[in-house]
Amino acid sequence: MTLTDRSARIRFLKSLLSPTLTILGMIGVGIALDIITNAYVQFVILLMIANTVMATSLNLVSGFTGQFSLGHAGFMAVGAYVSAWLAMHPALAGAPDLLKYLLLPIASGLAAAAAGYIVGLPSLRLRGDYLAIVTLGFGEIIRVVILNSPAIGGARGLYGIPSAMPLEEIGLSAFSTQFAISSAWCVITVFTLWRLVHSARGRAFLSVREDEIAAEAMGINVTQTKVRAFVISSFFAGVGGALFAHSVKYLNPATFTFTKSVDFIIMIVLGGMGSFSGSIIAAAVITILPEMVLRELQSITGVDLRMVIYSLLLILFMILRPSGILGTLEIPDLLKRFKRKAVQNG
Amino acid sequence: MAERQDHREVLLHAEDVVMQFGGLRAVDGFKLTLHQGELVGLIGPNGAGKTTCFNCLTGVYKPTSGRVLIRGIDTKPLKPYQISALGMTRTFQNIRLFREMNVIDNVIVAGLQHARHTDFDSIFRTPRHYVEEARLRERAMELLAIFDLKEKYDLKAGSLPYGDQRRLEIVRALATEPRMILLDEPAAGMNNKETEDLMHLISKIKRDFNLTVLLIEHDMRLVMGICERILVLDHGILIAEGTPSQIQNDPKVITAYLGAEEQA
Amino acid sequence: MESSSSQEFIQHLINGISLGSIYALIALGYTMVYGILQLINFAHSEVYMVGAFAAFYASRSLGLDQHPGVGALIVILAAAVAACSILGVTIERLAYRPLRKSPKLNILITAIGVSLLLQFSGQIIFGADPKLFPEVIKDVVLFEIGGVDVRSMDVTILVIGTLFMTGLHFLVHHTKMGTAMRAVSSNGGVAALMGINVDRVISFTFIIGSSLAGVGAVLVGLKYPKIDPLMGTLIGIKAFVAAVLGGIGSLPGAMLGGVLLGLCEEMVVAYFSSTYRDALAFGILILILLFKPAGLLGSLQREKV
Q1: Which of B122, B170, B181 to substitute to test the interface with A, most A CBs within 10 Å?
Q2: Among residues A17, A232, A267, B134, which is most buried (max CB within 10 A)?
Q3: Confidence bin at C304 (pLDDT 50/70/90)
Q4: What is the pLDDT of residues C242-268, one digit of tens each?
């Protein structure tokens, strides 16, 4: 039964296949979207990708590890400003364009992860709801610091953030290039988080969510596990911020308020705490909804009902269906169930 | 008291352990020496402080005073997970499984401290990830098989019947590869037949895994059959220690322990 | 020269204490609910906001700003207290009670939901633009001691703040309901076994905590007369920090924490810089969590309610 080294190596090589194929597929999707959609729809799609990265990363720490963070927008802000600042920095002007924009999210992620470590280390030792308040406070502090930093635009905001040049020689327009970069990072995020959670080491996150005392008694270093989840989650929040910065091309500290963090919480609550598929679906819906539907509603009623509807959804879901739409199920689980039923029936 | 000199390795040594909660001394002057291969029972009426003792020994509580040494190492500065790494594990009186996780994942998590792969390996699905995961899984299945839980490996732990949950707690504890296991009322809520089976199983795993066992039991008759040595706790104080026959005939035990039971 | 700087210092001291006693009033609501349900009641800051608007509308419909004075003050206080206690108890009944047995995380998320719902429906109902709070107390210099102005506003705030906090102390320590509150806070399960109606005690706690928020809202309205539907967010977080600083669950802690935070803010603005005024509370929060997570009075004098 024991796995031989040879078959383990083969499995490793096979495991590289699916993310690579997904990224290549996404590039194709980008080219198709470029042809069939207009600039506004394309903008919404780029936002959707950044939000997917944000929601799935928040789900790791809140959904899978059970630690409630209210400062995800703060880590996003760190990533967004780091990436924008580096992209505009003259020292990097000579760097190869595509490579630069592919790698900037790493710098953003590292900066956000460092912030996550500093915030998480003291507060994760404490009772759960303190983390909520500390992360909320952290988000606000980040905002105040940006507000008071003229070098990155201060209260006026940061304009004219560059993004990758179109790669016309291989048929990629400005949008398809950014789409390729964004979706590559989105695929990396989802695969990383998925593979981490769906491994023995990832089960440690869940055990902490389920019962800290039992986890500790079974040899799990609970504080270290929480910090690990928090740092990884912050890293990808930074990545999401970078994608956001180069998609929107304009940053303002007012974007990264508490309400922004609540957006991501709504996504993971609606999709299901502990389901990446749920987060992805909810991120898509919650990004599209205000643009396509609520905008119409607002033009009819004359008032902005977006947050009223969101907050009502949050309360109703908690009371009536606290597990969200998918609970802890993932799309593959659903397919398996579906298949099993089909086999039983026929 | 057992005066016989014991030359086996001392795994656990607790002396003068006191646990004070506000004005209440839940444990007062507890002492215990566990040797390799012993099966010792800790009995006492409800509220005698048995579980509090366990919590002091496993690091869930930091004793107000006194010392707990595991294989000669003072556990005072250690956190529970570090104590687990010293080879001591436990089960919980009020079952504390990871309810929303699969049966097998409950066991795999407990084996993690002996796995050699890192987050990096799992993220990149390196060969080492596959080798280690397969090893953990295989080991978990072996343990589940001993306790007749193999067929239920992919059910949610919280959905198991009560008796299965109790046994899964023991499987999970064994997955930490302990030298010493502390069982907190493992038979609570089971019927006579189940309890008897469980006691046989405990004797069996003790032999097969070369374990040292400390067993809390509320009902003194259960432990008489399998324990070599029994400690009796009442109101946080050790009132007797000895072989089952010594304990059975100890007048202090009969008055304090059985008296309390009659009242209840 | 020296005397003028010490006069200035005393002036800041008075300002800080008066601001701090407002924080304290609101912090009490957080600490009481936390003591009894272990819940950070995020909606508390919106209850406070609604209190300010209740006072505003009461004054406008009765034309009280034309007749300033103690009578007018009492009327708008009553309006704010009534609105806040009804709202507080409704929130508990509709949103928190159905979740009493759910995981704490779910209740916390619900609390955030209620807070946002009130903020944004407040923007629709009251309008997003700031309103001018009625000037029911004229801010005049009452008297002067050694070159320090004692203004009517600060005196009003201090008198009302002290009055209500003393009232709370009496209520908690010398009434049956107060005893029941302390019992539920120290152990809800046992309290229920002793025949205490836990649901009623919780409702009562929400009424008292929300009323104090209403009082706080009127005092803030008097001191900083611009009110808007988002006015609760920042002061709410600060009051919560005050509660943590004093030791969450502890009533004297909330009062001490509130006054300390008010003083710190006033002094930082006076002697350092005003830009980081709002970040100060979070800095204090992080320091207290690092070095004394139980808060100043949390472990010593754990008078939980």
Answers
A1: B122
A2: A267
A3: very low
A4: 998 998 888 999 999 999 999 999 998
Domain-embedded: residue A324: no
The first and second tokens of residue C5, run together, are 């700087």
**Subunits touching B (CB < 8 Å, at least 3 pairs)?**
A
Say if residue B79 is in the same domain as residue B204.
yes
Q: Among A203, A221, A236, which would you mutate to test the B interface (most chain B Cβ atoms within 10 Å of its Cβ)?
A: A203
* Contacts of C among chains (3+ CB pairs under 8 A): A
Higher-pLDDT residue of B160, C64: B160
Residue C70 forms contact with A (CB below 8 Å): no
* pLDDT value of position B1: 44
Q: Hey, CA dihedral for A87, A89, A92, A94, is it positive or negative?
A: positive
Residue at B203 is within a domain: yes
Is A202–B122 a contact, with Cβ atoms under 8 angstroms apart? Answer: yes
Average pLDDT over residues B99-109: 96
Decide if A11 touches B, using CB distance below 8 A.
yes
Q: How much is the pLDDT for B264?
A: 41
Domains in chain A, number: 1
Asked if A3 and B134 come within 8 Å (Cβ–Cβ), the reply is yes
Which string of b and e fits A220-240 if b means at least 16 CB within 10 Å? bbbbebbbbbbbbbbbbbbbb
Which among A126, A258, A265 has the least Cβ separation from residue C109? A265
pLDDT tens for C51-64 read 999 999 999 998 88
Residue B256 pLDDT grade (very low, low, confident, very high; cuts 50, 70, 90): confident
Do B115 and B70 belong to one domain? no
Q: What is the ipTM of this complex?
A: 0.90
- Per CATH, the architecture of C2-291 is what? Orthogonal Bundle (1.10)
Identify the pLDDT of residue B259.
Answer: 60
> B41 is written with which tokens?
């029972």
Q: Is A34 exposed, middle or buried (0-12, 13-18, 19+ CB in 10 A)?
A: middle
Element (H, E) at B232: strand B229-234
Q: Tell me the mean pLDDT in the region C30-37.
A: 90
Burial class, A98, CB count within 10 angstroms (exposed 0-12 / middle 13-18 / buried 19+)? middle
Rounded distance, CA A109 to CA A116, Å? 10
The CATH number of the domain holding residue B195 is 3.40.50.300
Structural domain for B99, as ranges: 95-175
Give percent of chain C above pLDDT 90: 54
Range of the domain at A153: 17-256
Contact A314 C116 (CB under 8 A): yes
- B196 and B254: one domain? yes
Residue B6, domain member (yes or no)? no
Position of tokens 């002290």? Answer: C162
Cα(C240)–Cα(C257) distance, integer angstroms: 9
Q: Do the Cβ atoms of A144 and C279 come within 8 Å?
A: yes
Q: Residue C305 — pLDDT band, cuts 50, 70, 90?
A: very low
Q: How many domains does chain B have?
A: 2
> Is residue C295 pLDDT above 90, yes or no?
no
Across the interface, of A140, A262, A303, the residue whose CB is closest to C112 is A262
Interface A:B, Cβ pairs < 8 A? 134
How many beta-carbon pairs below 8 A join chains A and C?
107
Mean of pLDDT values over C123-139: 89
Residues B85, B115 share a domain: no
* Domain identity same for B215 and B84: yes
| CB of C300 less than 8 A from some CB of A | no
Residues B149 and B259 in one domain: no
Ramachandran area for residue A227 (φ above 0: left; ψ -120 to 50: alpha; else beta): alpha
Q: ∠ at Cα A204 (A202, A206), nearest 5°?
A: 85
Q: Say if residues C96 and C39 touch (Cβ distance below 8 Å).
A: yes
Check if the beta carbon of residue B60 is closer than 8 Å to that of residue A213: yes
